[in-house]
Design goal:
This protein is α/β, with parallel strands linked by helices. The chain is built from nine helices and 14 strands. It has one domain: Metallo-beta-lactamase, Chain A, CATH 3.60.15.10.
Length: 303
């Protein structure tokens, strides 16, 4: 069997990613016949201001100390959720792909280690269209990385990012995001399936609107009988500030007040029901639970 340039790229990615990121399936959940794992796309490198936008320098230092965060760049994990059951291989988000940050874009290598090739992926479900969630749909040659997959996205999210006016209205710091999102969405236009809040988008998978991080952000409840897990995307984007003080605005959110309201609703439900959760940027692979502590919450990673 011969190897194409793309085949070589995938094999090389697996080796490089394995050296850089320890562990592919950081955590795993068995939900009836559904096997749910998180696979690492790498990590992001972000300035502290990304979370604490608007704070004066002294207040920023106080906040970093309060939450035990480094004074330098933040390096949150990028956890892509993989759902496998008979006849389906589903990804929730597609990672960052090439060209966003050097520390991310390792998804193809991670999947290869687990024995999953891009052509085996049957569905890609998007929480939202930020680069580390959407840009990985294209490979190094600007071809669709998952050629046989169906692509599913919330209608409001699609309409917002596909609108060419968004690049002009989103603000200069996010203009490149909007342009990059639309370029990739143009290749998905004939393949995408749109849905609304509350719909069962796949058997046992329901969409829940969690707007604010982006206008049309969606989370997904994966259920088997009375057991379920909530794939949060970036609705709860970190394991410290957004758990301890969920009503506090976060600079990463496009609509901070709306995002805070959605976050408080989610954490209240997750803690009350002790439902398992998966966070895209939470540590240890992102799987765990929310536990109420006083007026806030804390993230309890899966053992």
């Amino acid at each position: 069997m011969g190897f194409t340039r793309r085949d070589f790229g995938l094999s090389a990615a697996a080796g490089l990613a394995a050296a850089a990121v320890p562990g592919w399936a950081s955590a795993r959940i068995n939900l009836g016949n559904k096997r749910i794992e998180t696979v690492s796309d790498g990590y992001l490198t972000l300035p502290p201001e990304f979370l604490f936008d608007g704070l004066e320098p002294d207040a920023l230092q106080q906040a970093l100390k309060q939450y035990g965060l480094p004074a330098g760049p933040l390096t949150p994990e990028v956890n892509v959720t993989l759902l496998r059951e008979e006849g389906r291989v589903v990804l929730f988000d597609a990672g960052a792909g090439p060209g966003f940050q050097d520390s991310a874009g390792n998804l193809t290598g991670a999947l290869e280690v687990l024995g999953v090739t891009p052509d085996q992926v049957t569905h890609v479900v998007f929480t939202h269209c930020h680069p580390d969630h959407l840009w990985g749909v294209l490979d190094d040659f600007d071809d669709l990385l998952f050629p046989g997959a169906a692509y599913l996205m919330g209608q409001g999210e699609w309409e917002y990012w596909f609108d060419p006016k968004t690049a002009d209205s989103i603000g200069s710091s996010r203009t490149a995001m909007a342009i990059g999102a639309r370029r990739r969405m143009e290749q998905l236009e004939d393949k995408v399936q749109l849905f609304r809040d509350g719909e069962e988008i796949l058997p046992g998978v329901a969409a829940h609107a969690t707007p604010g991080h982006t206008p049309g952000h969606m989370s997904f409840e994966v259920r088997d009988g009375s057991n379920s897990v909530l794939v949060l995307g970036d609705a709860v984007g970190n394991h410290h500030v957004s758990f301890a003080d969920p009503g506090r605005p976060v600079g990463a959110d496009q609509e901070p007040q709306t995002a805070a309201a959605a976050r408080m609703r989610l954490l209240d439900r997750l803690a009350a029901e002790q439902m398992q959760l998966i966070g895209y940027h939470l540590p240890g692979g992102g799987i765990g639970r929310a536990e109420r502590i006083g007026s806030g919450y804390r993230f309890v990673p899966a053992v």
